[in-house]
Design brief:
The protein is an alpha+beta fold. It folds into three domains: 6-221, Spore Coat Polysaccharide Biosynthesis Protein SpsA, Chain A; 253-365, Phosphorylase Kinase, domain 1; 371-487, Transferase(Phosphotransferase), domain 1. The chain has helices at 19-27, 47-57, 71-81, 100-110, 138-141, 155-160, 172-181, 204-207, 212-222, 224-231, 242-252, 267-276, 311-319, 324-337, 374-378, 385-401, 440-445, 454-468, 472-482, and strands at 6-12, 34-41, 61-66, 86-89, 95-96, 114-125, 129-130, 152-154, 186-199, 255-259, 282-286, 290-296, 299-306, 345-353, 356-365, 371-372, 404-406, 414-419, 422-427, 433-435. The protein is elongated. The termini are far apart.
């Protein structure tokens, strides 16, 4: 479209003295294709009457009302009702120039890499003069809002980030710009004056200054990954000192966040894990290590928190050895590259205190497999049990042929699912893998933790021998010999009731 529809959204709360002037400034625009959406946010003065009058007089203006829920909620309602491809928010006490809609829309049409078009601005009201423009870059907007509230953007981009944050009280435009830009996109600055900003002693911008702590706390919670990238850590109340303070903090308590490149858009959740792990998520295992399931958008992620090691190992892991979380992530990638199924790795987190290792998390997607090998141990009547045992034996042989030895190859770490004749098997708990040539003896010994009755182990040993080209009876004898002593007293299992 040569002139895409622009939706100008005007939230209103008790602005009867200024609303008409704001609407008139938009109606005077040179741009031929726009609509105005006015949302009254529970005004107690004549603002709704004025807005209703304009909407009845001009079909380009639509008027909505809501109970007092704040400017962010009012803008979100306008976003939902907007029909335009482009959005321009205008506060009810401000004005725009005649050419701003035209020049800003032209920029968005011609520059697809641009997410926001801003402009020069002037003060009027209790203060007059030209506003000071500071060129945008992400590190600067991490500390200071350098983009006018009255700037044009695409509606699709706004809906993708969930619109304006209704939790934050004050500086909601700053939070919104961060949401739009933190994962990429450019800002185009127009040299013409397009926006007139009214200065009032009781304006919202002045009163918002009292909410500094609340605003920064919400920003840190919602955009932790962004601040860590741009400021080396959180945004501090002394914003200009954030990078310096974070440098010294991370000298004392260094952290490593590593997120798989395919999941960068969801890294905010990943970065929040150290803060939310203890009191959120569904616990599925609690022992030496804790495993929880979290909802991350439309996905379910499994997060494993590894127990903090003893002092000696804290020193070793802090300086010489990779953490269990990092090994789990790297080994998962290696297994997938070898064609061995394991849940998709998302990333890992490590934290040290000075040079001593403190804690770590490993994050992966939740497996689609709905059974664990331990079910075959408990229930000798499990459907197609022998077929599944043979499939697991062949899977074990494949691991060993590809040079992978799982040092904790136990019933809880082998997952499987069955669809008709297809048996899908996955391996989990990967921090204790070894790589290299796997001998017949080492391979047969790898079955030692599988607490099966002798006949079932014989079935697996024979299938394993065939898959690797070994002599059957020799493998059966080796598997039985290396079976854990505490398992050898089992001669048979009773069917599960």
């Amino acid at each position: 479209m040569k002139n895409p529809l622009v939706s100008v959204i005007i939230p209103v709360y008790n602005m009867e003295a200024f609303l008409a002037e704001a609407i008139d400034s938009v109606l005077a625009s040179t741009y031929p294709n726009f609509e105005i959406i006015v949302v009254d946010d529970g005004s107690t003065d004549q603002s709704p009457v004025i807005a209703q009058h304009y909407s009845e007089r001009d079909t380009r203006i639509r008027f909505y009302r809501q109970s007092n829920r704040g400017v962010a909620a009012a803008r979100n309602l306008a976003l939902q009702e907007a029909r335009g491809e482009f959005i321009l928010p205008v506060d009810a006490d401000d004005k725009i120039s005649k050419i701003f809609l035209e020049t800003a829309a032209k920029a968005l049409v011609q520059l697809p890499q641009v997410k926001i078009v801003t402009c020069e601005y002037e003060y009027f009201g209790e203060k007059k003069g030209k506003g000071k423009y500071r060129p945008y870059h992400r590190r600067l907007i991490a500390r200071k809002n350098v983009i006018n509230n009255c700037s044009m953007y695409r509606r699709t981009d706004a809906l993708k980030v969930g619109g304006y944050c209704e939790e934050i009280i004050g500086r909601e435009d700053w939070e919104f710009w961060i949401s739009l830009l933190k994962n990429g996109g450019e800002v185009e600055h127009l040299s013409e004056t397009g926006f007139y900003y009214r200065i009032r002693s009781n304006s919202k911008r002045i009163t918002d200054r009292k909410l500094k702590k609340h605003i920064i706390d919400v920003l840190n919670r919602r955009h932790k990954a962004f601040f860590y990238r741009e400021l080396g850590g959180k945004l501090h109340y002394r914003r200009s000192l954030s990078r310096l303070l974070n440098f010294f903090y991370h000298c004392y308590k260094p952290e490593t966040f590593f997120v798989h490149p395919d999941f960068k858009e969801e890294e905010e959740f990943f970065y929040s894990l150290p803060d939310i792990f203890d009191n959120q998520g569904e616990t599925i295992h609690s022992g030496r290590n804790i495993i929880k399931i979290f909802n991350a958008g439309n996905r379910k992620w499994v997060v494993k928190s590894f127990q903090s090691p003893n002092v000696v190992n804290r020193f070793i892991y802090g300086i010489f050895r990779k953490s269990k979380a990092r090994r789990s992530y790297e080994y998962a990638l290696k297994l997938l590259s070898l064609g061995i199924a394991t849940p998709q790795p998302i990333g890992y987190y490590e934290q040290k205190i000075l040079f001593l290792f403190h804690k770590s998390f490993y994050v992966s997607e939740r497996s689609e497999c709905n059974h664990r090998f331990e079910e075959l141990i408990r229930d000798v009547n499990f459907p197609d049990r022998e077929k599944i045992l043979k499939a697991v034996a062949r899977f074990t042989a494949e691991l060993h042929e590809k040079g992978v030895l799982h040092s904790d190859y136990s019933a809880g770490n082998i997952l499987f699912s069955q669809t008709n004749d297809d048996i899908h098997i996955e391996l989990i708990d990967l921090n204790r893998l070894k790589f290299g040539k796997i001998s017949k003896t080492a391979g047969c010994r790898n079955f030692e933790r599988l607490n099966l009755e002798p006949e079932a182990l014989k079935t697996m040993a024979e299938e394993y021998a065939v898959a690797r080209g070994f002599e059957k009876q020799e493998c059966v004898e080796l598997v039985q010999r290396y079976r854990w002593k505490k398992h050898k007293n089992i001669s048979s299992l009773q069917p599960k009731n």
